[in-house]
Structures are given as structure tokens and as C-alpha cells.
Amino acid sequence: MTLEQLSSNKAFEGTLVKYKFKSSALGGLDAQFNLFTPPNASASSKAPVLIYLAGLTCTEDNGAQKGSFFASAATEGLHFHSSVATADLTSFVGIALLFPDTSPRGAGALDEDKDWDFGTGAGFYLDATNPAYATHYNMRKYILEELPKVVNDAGLHVDVGRMSIFGHSMGGHGALTLYLNSPTQQFRSASAFAPICNPTECPWGKKAFEGYLEKGIEEAKPQYDATELIAIRKDPVHILVDYGTGDNFYKSGQLLPENFDKAAKSAGFDEVQVRVRSQEGYDHSYFFISTFAADHIHFHANFLKA
Predict the structure, then answer these.
(1) What is the pLDDT of residues 284-297, one digit of tens each?
(2) Is 30 in the active site?
(3) Which residue of the set 238, 284, 296, 300 is catalytic?
(4) Could you tell me where the beta strands, DSSP code E, fall in 262-305?
(5) Which of 41, 79, 255, 264 has its CA 20 to 30 A from that of 110?
(6) pTM of the model
(7) Catalytic: which of 247, 261, 296, 300?
């Protein structure tokens, strides 16, 4: 697998690089991702990896450019006073951040560019079974299998044996479901900003599942609904969810975090294992995400750096 480097930017003494490669999981289409590598990561001292999944209409750039994640990822666990520039980073490695795209691009699939909440930019982090989409719309396989292997095989100084996952909105749905139903339990923790928590019960999810999956909602419930998955989970979990009470998508019933919280409690998980926090007045934007970005990085560091 050949990676093509498209850009590189220094940030908080680390480096953000955008790459492109041809993805077999996405039917041979070009796929782009951003990787932030913290300072001092090397072949002999690899950084753990936190994958960020973005929401509807987004690309691999939204979280990287607007999430305000880099300062915390570069310095997590390191005590410093004024700035990363004055800190002693000579023997410290922070957390790498991996930002994939939200769907295949240019598949030419049925109606993929008709609506903003289905198709391009709206892959819903599933593997399609409807033949109209099954060749290219395989974001679950892409995130769980192909992308970690590509990054590892390229020798990019990150440790894919230490991974966690987080995301926003549709990406929060992806983070929770991939964490809960990964067959290898490859993620140590999961968190989400304003996630679609119960997609088989909301308009966005119903539209996606009825389009991408041959059996629609019936097929989605045991695989792609975080509320259904947490209800039957037996193994320990480490989950953090934040949502804003001023979020119009929350108000309109697209997110349903209370359903997820109730299911988690009914399954026996306490607030140490599953913490769902309502944040007064915050909306669905990256202003909200950036406010609580450091909280989420720190949450994952507890497990990635253990």
C-alpha cells in the first residue's frame, strides 16, 4: 500500500500530515486522512492513537482544523506552566490523533449526492449490504481493519495496539458502535460529542439504515445502534458522552442521549463506566466540541497511557 503525502503542518511541536491512498475497503477509491503525530514519537517510542470520527457533511479536515485537540494530545500527562514551547518534551510522547473521512468519495452510487444526510459525507460508519452501496460504502471495515493496518505498515510512529476512539454527531454514533461491537475489542475507550445515540429511533438513522442495509432497521439494531448494544453488553466499558441542551438536533429528537443513558444504567453500568453529561446551553457546533476537547483527550489518556 502506497501512501501519498499531500500536506504537512507543524502544530504544538508535533506534526499534522494529510495522506492519500487507494482503499480496498472503499472499492478502490482514493481515501484521505489526517494524522497528528505528537512530539518525540519515533520508531522506538510510538504514540498511542485516538481516532476521531466526524459528523454529517464533514471530511477528514473538520476535526483537525476546528476541534482544538492538538495541545492536549501533545502534552497529555506532562506538567507545564505557560506553553508547550517552554515545556521539557525531550523524553515525553503524547497521543496521536487520526482523522479519517466520513464516507467514500466519488463512488457514483445511487442518489449519493442527492441529500446532505445520506451518501457522500454521510457514510454512517457501517458496511452496506444493499447492492447499490455495498461495493464502496464500507466505513466500518475501513475504520476497524484497513486504516489501522495502513498506518501501521507505513511506519508512522504510532502504536495501533493502543487505540481509543471518539467522534461527533454521526461520528459519535460511529465511535460508540465501533467500540461496542468491534469483534477484537481493539479500542480501550470511547467518547462522543452530541452523538446519535439511538439511530434506529431517529430520522437520520432510519434514513441511513433503510438506504444502506438490505433489511433496514431490523439489520441495524444488533450492529449499529449504541443504545441496543449497551443494553446487552457484558464486558466492562469506558465511555464518556457530552451533549448540549441548546443543540437543535438534540431538541428535535435526532440524538436521544437519555435513551442511551437509561439503557446503560439498566444494564448495570455506573457513572464511572458510562458517563453521560448534559452541558447547559451548548449547541451542536465545534464551539461546543472545542470547549470540552481537553476533557475528552484526558479521559482517553487514562486508558491509552496505562
Answers:
(1) 999 999 999 999 99
(2) no
(3) 284
(4) 274-279
(5) 255
(6) 0.95
(7) 247
